Amino acid sequence: KLQQTQIRQQIAHLAAKLEPDSPCPVCGSTSHPHPALVVDEPLVSEAALKQADQERQKAAARKTMVETQLANLETQLKTAKAKIAQARQAFTEHWQEQAKLIAGVADKTGILQQLTALKTLAATNEHQLTEAQTEHAALQVALKRVTRPSLPVRQKFSNAKLV
Questions:
Q1: Coiled-coil intervals in this record (predicted)?
Q2: pTM for the whole thing?
Q3: Higher model confidence: residue 145 or residue 83?
Q4: What is the mean pLDDT of the chain?
Q5: How far does Cα 49 stand from its chain's mean position?
Q6: Phi–psi pair at 150, nearest 5 degrees
Q7: Which DSSP string do the residues of 105-153 spell out, in sequence order?
Q8: Where exactly are the structural domains of the chain?
Q9: Under 8 Å CB-to-CB from 35, ≥6 apart: which residues?
Q10: What is the DSSP annotation of 58-92?
Q11: Kind and range of the H or E element at 27?
């Protein structure tokens, strides 16, 4: 924009110096039907143009640097997203393994409870068996007493057979 302003100013400056029937310093024509109008803008110096060009170059360099940084950040973001996806997958797999282990522990806990109940039942049955055996032995002793005739009764039976 500054360069365009400077060009307009130079044209207006040259047009202001035109004289009728004198050759134009730009095109050499002696007729000047539409000379440029004087521009009412502040004059643009070469130094201002150079400074503006330097600032444009700096801005272009900053733009390139920012674009490079953006590309690097996009790459880092892509890498981070991939790592997050991998971590999520690893977590899911680990969680599933833990769930299986917990289910296994629950199964083992159930089996352990069943085993404890069976041991209790076995102890109860063993106790009942011991009591039954003791009672059976006592009943056999009682049965032998009842079925074995006393000595006087035996003698009576022995004598009775002889008759």
A1: 49-90
A2: 0.42
A3: 83
A4: 85
A5: 55
A6: -70, 165
A7: HHHHHHHHHHHHHHHHHHHHHHHHHHHHHHHHHHHHHHHHHHHSPPHHH
A8: 1-44
A9: 15, 18
A10: HHHHHHHHHHHHHHHHHHHHHHHHHHHHHHHHHHH
A11: none
For residue 34, which of 11, 50, 67 has the smallest C-alpha distance?
11
Single-letter amino acid, residue 128: Q
Radius of gyration of the chain, Cα coordinates, nearest whole angstrom: 60
Residues in Cβ contact with 31 at an 8 Å cutoff, skipping those fewer than 6 apart: none
Judge whether 13 and 24 are in contact, CB under 8 Å: no
Of 69-73, 84-88, 153-157, the least confident:
153-157
Q: Which of 17, 11, 19 is nearest to 36 (CA)?
A: 11
- Provide mean pLDDT across the span 21-35: 82
